[in-house]
Design goal:
The chain is an alpha+beta fold. The chain is 25% helix and 44% strand.
Length: 407
């Protein structure tokens, strides 16, 4: 604290030499003039003295036969005059302080934590509907009302807390970890499972509904495999009524499928020339302004790099400085070799087979060929597969007392 006060008032580093420097320091002490950081080098003394004290030592120096020379000047009284001469610096400092002050009145970042079931996009749409957005004034935000709206909009949220940390809005939520019990509907319209392909049934395990096919049956696309209409019989084996359920079963169907793809003999390939040019832009939030400059090449790729000053990042202000690098290239015709064509087509085939595996499809037999067409390499594949089937379709309802023929 004492050092800060000395800096605010200003002080000097001086050199004292002459007939009696020791008597000079004693008289300064008697007069209440503060001296500190005294260093002796032979007959010369170096010390610090307050700016006010310096103007009071002239009679003491004359009386003791000493000479006092100023070596360094320290403190605010000496700093401000030099600072005021640099008008550009002062203007920038004033603008920066004004920018920080004005920015502190707004919300520049929104952070959400604790969400697992609710996606960030869904929550952003909720905030947008409630007029909570980046760039809004802090005073316009009602924290308590926002917390109420969160709990009202999302029943799975058991606890919500919102708070402001500088220019950042922090939202913490806790979701209900317990499973949500959904009551099953007692009265369901009923659904059937139908075949999506022509093929042969190789396995069927029914959990609900009435099976209409057996293992080994050949079926056509659209045929009902498991019916959601369950008959309830009288004692005389006549149908009293029908109970409707959602058919559920694991059914594997063996059928043939094909895969075809082609690769042109020639294609256009990018060849970079090595020439590059850059331009810059400024971005604030979702808006950006490009600095003057033209796109330098006729055909090019662009690489965008954005940076944010550390000062603005700590303030959570979404202001960025961007650089766009344009890389010139030429379109060159290129002809695949047989080895390259085979490798690329096999890669496409592997991607197709990987998709089948993700769907639970088992490949029983396959016949793959790569042939030369008129303008392209052609890959054709014939596969015998076993695939889970059973698309849902609404069950045909029959009123009690009517036959299926009566409708």
């Amino acid at each position: 604290m004492i050092r800060f006060l000395k800096y605010m008032k200003g002080y000097l580093r001086v050199r004292v030499r002459g007939f009696s420097p020791e008597r000079f320091m004693n008289l300064c002490s008697n007069k209440g003039i503060l001296l500190w950081d005294i260093v002796r080098e032979g007959d010369v003394y170096y010390m610090n003295i307050t700016l006010k004290g310096f103007w009071e030592i002239r009679p003491i120096a004359k009386k003791t036969g000493t000479r006092v020379a100023i070596l360094e000047r320290y403190g605010l009284p000496f700093f401000l005059p030099r600072l005021l001469k640099r008008k550009t610096f002062v203007l920038g400092l004033v603008l920066a302080i004004a920018f920080w002050t004005v920015s502190s009145f707004f919300i520049w970042d929104i952070s959400l934590s604790g969400n697992y079931q609710i996606t960030d996009d869904v929550f952003r749409n909720f905030l947008k509907e409630n007029q909570v957005r980046i760039g809004m004034r802090r005073d316009d935000l009602d924290i308590q009302e926002l917390e109420k709206q969160i709990r009202r909009q999302f029943p799975q949220i058991t606890w919500a807390s919102a708070r402001l940390d500088g220019t950042k809005l922090l939202i913490d939520i806790k979701e209900n970890d317990a499973p949500i019990n959904i009551e099953e509907r007692e009265d369901t319209p009923g659904t059937d499972l139908v075949a999506e392909y022509d093929g042969r049934v190789v396995s069927i395990i029914v959990r609900s509904g009435v099976p209409q096919v057996s293992i080994g049956d050949m079926v056509e696309k659209g045929v009902v495999l498991v019916e959601g209409k369950v008959p309830v019989y009288n004692e005389d084996a006549t149908v009293r009524e029908y109970s409707y359920v959602d058919a559920d079963a694991d059914i594997m169907l063996e059928h043939a499928t094909a895969f075809t793809d082609s690769l042109p003999f020639e294609h256009i390939e990018k060849r970079y020339t090595g020439r590059e040019k850059s331009s810059h832009y400024i971005k604030l939030g979702d808006r950006s302004w490009a600095l003057p400059g033209n796109r330098p090449f006729l055909v090019y790729d662009s690489v965008i790099k954005e940076t944010r000053p550390l000062m603005l990042e700590r303030l959570s202000v979404p202001a960025f400085w961007g650089t766009v690098t344009y890389r010139e290239y030429q379109n060159v015709e290129y002809k695949y070799t047989a080895e390259e064509a085979k490798a690329l087509l096999n890669q496409k085939l592997m991607e197709f087979l990987a998709e089948l595996e993700e769907k639970g499809v088992q490949i029983i037999e396959k016949d793959v060929r790569i042939e030369t067409g008129e303008e392209a390499w052609v890959l054709t594949g014939q596969f015998l597969v076993q695939e889970p089937v059973g698309a849902s379709a609404q069950t045909e309802r029959i009123e009690v007392g009517k036959t299926e023929e009566d409708g």
